[in-house]
Design a protein that fits this description.
It is a single chain. The relative contact order is 0.14. Helix 1 crosses helix 9. Helix content is about 45%, strand content about 15%. Helix 1 (about 20-35) links the parallel strand 1 (about 15) and strand 2 (about 35-40). It has helices at about 20-35, 45-55, 70-80, 110-135, 150, 160-180, 195-205, 205-215, 230-235; strands spanning about 15, 35-40, 60-65, 85-90, 140-145, 185-190, 245-250. The protein is α/β, with parallel strands linked by helices. It has one domain (about 15-190, about 225-250): Rossmann fold (3-Layer(aba) Sandwich).
């Protein structure tokens, strides 16, 4: 077990998309504790600023950068603001409210498009924008947060799962393409997380958590900080020979073997 994370990714610069809350916030804080300077991206600047304030309170380095990562023009503007970064964490990808709870036949293109834009196209836009700098420097890390809905398949999450599966396929292909340039590309796949709409539901119906936890060998659903240590490891020098992989952080819900 790594007990001292300080300086684990010292002096690296990391961009965390969707870093204003949940899993992205947890990764941003853990990476700052490990010595990186963090650019906290979020659609809403005040959310990014709050996370930066938390990092500053621990004497870490962080800067907010508001941008809609679904818009390539705004991504380009974000790159001009941040400059090159060593690490990109494509975390933005929370499904729009209400879309993933419907059978596929009850949905249409107006609901598919936001899911595909946020969970796949945004990954392409951000990665493409920062990758040339990594190749030029011969060092880089691209990490994308995906979902077991894309590895296993889940009812009423068909398009969301398809977008996440596509992001995994993109990551595997890109890993093969840029490995000799010193850039690794990996994914972390999450299970059910106590966050967002579910966290709100659990406040009013706490018995639901025990019901959901029955599907997980470790006996609980995910917490937003569960994946943060692995994210730091995969984005460090220690993981230079790990690329093209999808690592489940899901309490054993779906085996990777």
């Amino acid at each position: 077990m790594i007990r001292d994370w300080s300086n684990f990714i010292a002096d690296r610069t990391a961009l965390i998309t969707g870093g204003g809350g949940g899993v992205g916030r947890a990764i941003a804080i853990q990476m700052a504790r490990a010595g990186a300077h963090i650019w906290v991206n979020d659609l809403f600047g005040d959310r990014a600023e709050r996370v930066c304030a938390e990092i500053h309170a621990e004497h870490g380095r962080a800067t907010p950068v508001a941008a809609d990562v679904c818009d390539p023009d705004l991504v380009a503007a974000m790159v001009r603001e941040t400059g090159p970064v060593d690490i990109v964490v494509n975390n933005a990808g929370i499904p729009p409210e209400g879309i993933t709870v419907k059978p596929f036949v009850e949905t249409g293109p107006e609901e598919w498009d936001p899911l595909l834009r946020l969970n796949l196209a945004a990954v392409l836009h951000v990665t493409r924008a920062y990758l040339p700098f990594m190749i030029e420097r011969q060092w880089g890390r691209v990490l994308t947060i995906v979902s077991d809905a894309g590895r296993k398949g889940e009812r009423k999450q068909v398009v969301y799962g398809a977008a996440k599966a596509a992001a995994m396929g993109f990551s595997r292909g890109l890993a093969a393409e840029v490995g000799r340039d010193g850039v690794t590309v990996n994914c972390i796949a999450l299970g059910t997380m106590n966050h967002g709409q579910l966290a709100t539901a659990l406040e009013t119906a706490p018995e639901l958590e025990a019901k959901l936890a029955r599907n997980y060998p470790v006996g609980r659903i995910g917490r937003v900080d569960d994946s943060a240590p692995l994210a730091v490891l995969l984005c460090s020098d220690a993981a230079e020979w790990i690329t093209g992989q999808v690592y489940p952080v899901d309490g054993g819900y779906t085996s990777a073997l």
